[in-house]
Specification:
The protein is of the alpha+beta class and 345 residues long. The protein is built from eleven helices and 15 strands. It has a nine-stranded mixed sheet with strand order 1-2-15-11-12-10-13-3-14. It is globular, with a radius of gyration of 21 Å.
Length: 345
């Protein structure tokens, strides 16, 4: 997402303060301590790294990007010029998944396509507090303003499009309209899955995106109230610069890569950095990823969202993913040792 210079400066300051809080530790480890490091296809990670590394402006990162552009042996490149750093803030690791939804829609409203996808109202600046979701969807604050990008046929899918922050809309003639995050109404995101658990409708292990969608559709009135429980509302913009075969734009304004991009909290993990993940659970994953995205629910040193791809199958995979493990950030050598936490005497 693109913000003004003042907002960017504030984010950078708060990120630095979070990363160097007394509760946060940085431990340099050896590559031999990374489980199954030798089994990964490091060239895939190098390809993803090259997508965003030209945007890294610090001299150490810029130098490494220049070397990466010479297409070296990928595994040797990462081992020679980086050191793995375990960044912890006391909270356990949590991996979740995200994806690019694909909705059915039209450029014009009809009896089928009744739910508008809006661009950001011009009076909203820098994520300032505006009307909550209920008012936006039931009042007249958006009426007659020409802010509709398209109309879709399913309000539940539109809600989850807002959670993901980007997606594709398949038009009746087969064309694809890609939309990306354009802004928000400034309200804090509230999890409707957690609310269903709080109400005793589901146990925590039962909740997934598909379970929530099915419950909302089976209970239309209660389901609508549940969606309004989350006051956060996301607006979109058209993305005309990304070919259909590439992934959606992430926080670095570059296409993300299925199975190689993760969303992180940039207060702890620098965007553009390689990150080794060791995800446990039913489908363990040991893989070198690139931190190329962020998310409103991704907070903490050991918190990551794995990009699973586009469409329904990717959505089902992402919806089931909620696993422990650990992630270890690869940093340029001098930066890694400079950040290492001094042991207690």
């Amino acid at each position: 997402m693109i913000r003004g210079l003042i907002a960017a400066s504030l984010i950078a300051i708060s990120s630095s303060l979070a990363a160097f809080s007394s509760d946060v530790t940085h431990t340099v480890v050896d590559f031999k301590d990374l489980n199954d490091w030798d089994k990964d296809t490091h060239a895939k990670a190098l390809e993803a790294f090259l997508v965003t590394c030209p945007d890294l402006k610090d001299p150490d990162w810029s130098a490494l990007c220049a070397l990466a552009q010479q297409k070296p042996d990928a595994k040797g490149f990462f081992e020679l010029f980086f050191r793995p750093v375990l960044i912890e803030d006391g909270d356990p690791m949590l991996f979740t998944g995200y994806f690019e939804p694909e909705l059915s829609g039209s450029l014009y409203p009809s009896s089928r396509y009744r739910y508008p996808v809006y661009r950001t109202p011009p009076e909203i600046a820098n994520n300032q507090l505006w009307y909550p979701r209920r008012v936006i969807e039931t009042g007249n604050v958006m009426t007659g303003r020409g802010l509709e990008i398209a109309w879709v046929d399913d309000p539940v899918e539109l809600f989850f499009l807002q959670i993901q922050g980007s997606g594709r809309i398949k038009l009746p003639d087969g064309r694809m309209l890609r939309v990306g995050y354009g802004g928000a109404n400034g309200h804090e995101y509230r999890s409707i899955g957690a609310e269903l658990v709080r109400r005793g409708i589901f146990e925590p292990h039962q909740v997934s995106a598909q379970v929530i969608k099915n419950w909302v559709r089976r209970n239309p009135a209660l389901g609508q109230e549940l969606l309004w429980f989350n006051p956060s509302y996301v607006f979109f913009r058209k993305i005309n610069s990304v070919p259909p075969e590439l992934g959606p734009l992430g926080a670095m304004n570059r296409s993300v890569t299925t199975g190689r991009t993760i969303a992180v909290d940039p207060a702890f993990v620098p965007l553009g950095a390689p990150v080794w993940i060791e995800k446990e659970g039913a489908d363990p994953m040991r893989r070198l990823m690139i931190a190329q995205d962020t998310g409103s629910a991704i907070k903490g040193a050991q918190r990551a969202d794995i990009f699973m791809g586009t469409g329904d199958q990717a959505g089902r995979l992402a919806g089931r993913l909620r696993d422990p493990g650990r992630m270890i950030t690869l940093l340029p050598i001098q930066r890694a040792y400079a950040m290492e936490t001094e042991p207690d005497l």
